[in-house]
Structures are given as C-alpha cells and as structure tokens.
C-alpha cells in the first residue's frame, strides 16, 4: 500500500481529536491527500455500531460483546475507508484504532491481548498503523478537561470508574514500551500548538 497510516491513542480528554485535525491540516498544506477519521465510526455501518456501543440507555455490554462490536465496526471501517485510501496513496489519520480495544476491552476489560489481536486478524486482516502517537496526560488534568468538554454527559465507556481508566492508561503504557518502533509517546499537557509541534517532530521518522 502506498499511503501512510497514523493513529492517535490515549485516555479520555487527552486532546486526540484536536491533534488529529491539526496534523491533517498540516499534511494537506504540504500537498498530501489526507483522510481523517475516527473509531468507533468512520463509515455509515461503523457509526451505527458506535451508537450501540456508546449509548447511555441503561444497557451495559460485557467486555466480550463489546470487543466483538468494536472489531466489527473496525472491519467495516478498514474495508470501506482505510484500505482503499491507503491503496491510492492517501495519508490516513485515525482518532483511536486497535490499541484502544487492547487497552479498554483488554487491559481494563479483562480480555487477553491475544484474543483482541485474534479478533483483529479476522475482522481487519491484522492491519496495523505505520505510526501510533500515544497522548499521555495526568489523570487529574484529564478529568478537568473532560468536565469542561462533556459537561457531565460522558458516554457509556468514558463514564466508567477512575480505576477502569487507570488500567486503560497502564495498558497503553505497556503497549508503547513493548513496540517502540511503532509508538511515540507525547506529553499532552501543553497548549494544542505545543503538542502539535511534538506531533510534527514525531513524524520526522516517517
Ligand atoms: P471517543 O470518545 O474518543 O470517540 O471514544 C469513544 C469511547 O470508546 C472511548 O471511551 C474509548 C472507547 N473505545 C473502546 O473502548 N474500544 C475501542 O476499540 C475504541 C476505538 C474506543
């Protein structure tokens, strides 16, 4: 595939969406075709599954059903949007991807990493990003940012207990330490422009 695939990962409130947008704008200015997208979502089918996954309607999925739904949404997203874009040479920037399933349904939800990767093998033929930017943020600061952003209206997963989100953060750190050739950790506490400069520096390796 001719294109490049970059993902943003991290806990809630780290500023992933803002950084994905700033990176997309910078790459577009440099003359690249850029596809900016998100998970769960990015295609009509995957957005429909997003609605099922994140609705606060009193129903709580178990971690296995949740992992299967995320993998199904990802399968549609990869097949219909990500792979075709990469094949024609575009840069694809995705706000969350496989590593979120490994951290949330795996590290925090209790499924093994092998099982999450097996689902990804079936659903998306194991497609991995070229580069994953892990935005890290002090949990207290993340909480304060989230309160401003969501005004107490967190989604079904975002609203889980502090202990769950602590496990998510630990899992992300573990993955980044285990695969330094794919991950770059970025401290996300600064102003968006400062964090964007760190993102651009991380792209040097591409
Ligand atoms: P968002 O708010 O960043 O769009 O993400 C939606 C929520 O879904 C967020 O709480 C993280 C969660 N999530 C998972 O649990 N597993 C996944 O594979 C993905 C992509 C997201």
Summarize the structure.
By secondary structure, the chain is an alpha/beta fold. It is built from 8 helices and 5 strands. The mean pLDDT is 95.
Walk me through the structure.
The model has no long low-confidence stretch (mean pLDDT 95). The longest helix is centred in the middle third of the chain and has 25 residues. The protein contains eight helices and five strands, in the order βαβααβααβααβα. Strands 2-3-1-4-5 form a five-stranded parallel β-sheet, with helices on both faces. It has a single domain, classed as P-loop containing nucleotide triphosphate hydrolases (Rossmann fold). It has 206 residues and is α/β, with parallel strands linked by helices. Bound molecules: thymidine-5'-phosphate.
Radius of gyration: 16 Å
Q: Quickly give the structural class.
A: alpha/beta
Beta-strand percentage range: 5-15%
CATH homologous superfamily grouping: P-loop containing nucleotide triphosphate hydrolases
Biggest sheet architecture: 5 strands, parallel
Low-pLDDT residue spans: none
SSE layout and pairing:
Blueprint: E1 4-9, H1 16-29, E2 34-38, H2 44-54, H3 63-87, E3 91-95, H4 98-108, H5 113-124, E4 131-136, H6 139-150, H7 162-178, E5 183-187, H8 192-202
Parallel strand pairs: 1-3, 1-4, 2-3, 4-5
Helix pairs in contact: 1-8, 2-3, 3-4, 3-5, 4-5, 4-7
The chain binds thymidine-5'-phosphate.
Write out key terms for the chains shown:
alpha/beta, Rossmann fold, 13% strand, binds thymidine-5'-phosphate
């Amino acid at each position: 595939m001719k294109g490049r695939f970059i993902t943003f990962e991290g806990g809630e409130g780290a500023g992933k969406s803002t950084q994905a947008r700033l990176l997309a704008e910078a790459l577009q200015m440099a003359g690249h075709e850029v596809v900016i997208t998100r998970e769960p979502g990015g295609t009509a089918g995957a957005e429909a599954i997003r609605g099922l996954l994140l609705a606060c309607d009193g129903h709580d999925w178990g971690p296995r059903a949740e992992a299967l739904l995320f993998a199904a949404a990802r399968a549609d997203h990869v097949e219909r949007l990500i792979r075709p874009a990469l094949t024609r040479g575009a840069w694809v920037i995705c706000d969350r991807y496989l590593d979120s399933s490994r951290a949330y349904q795996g590290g925090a939800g209790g499924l093994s990493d092998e099982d999450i990767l097996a689902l990804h093998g079936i659903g998306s033929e194991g497609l991995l990003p070229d580069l994953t930017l892990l935005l890290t943020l002090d949990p207290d600061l993340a909480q304060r940012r989230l309160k401003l952003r969501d005004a107490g209206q967190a989604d079904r997963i975002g609203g889980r207990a502090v202990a769950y989100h602590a496990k998510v953060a630990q899992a992300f750190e573990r993955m980044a330490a285990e695969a330094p050739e794919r991950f770059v950790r970025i401290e996300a506490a600064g102003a968006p422009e400062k964090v964007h400069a760190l993102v651009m520096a991380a792209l040097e390796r591409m």
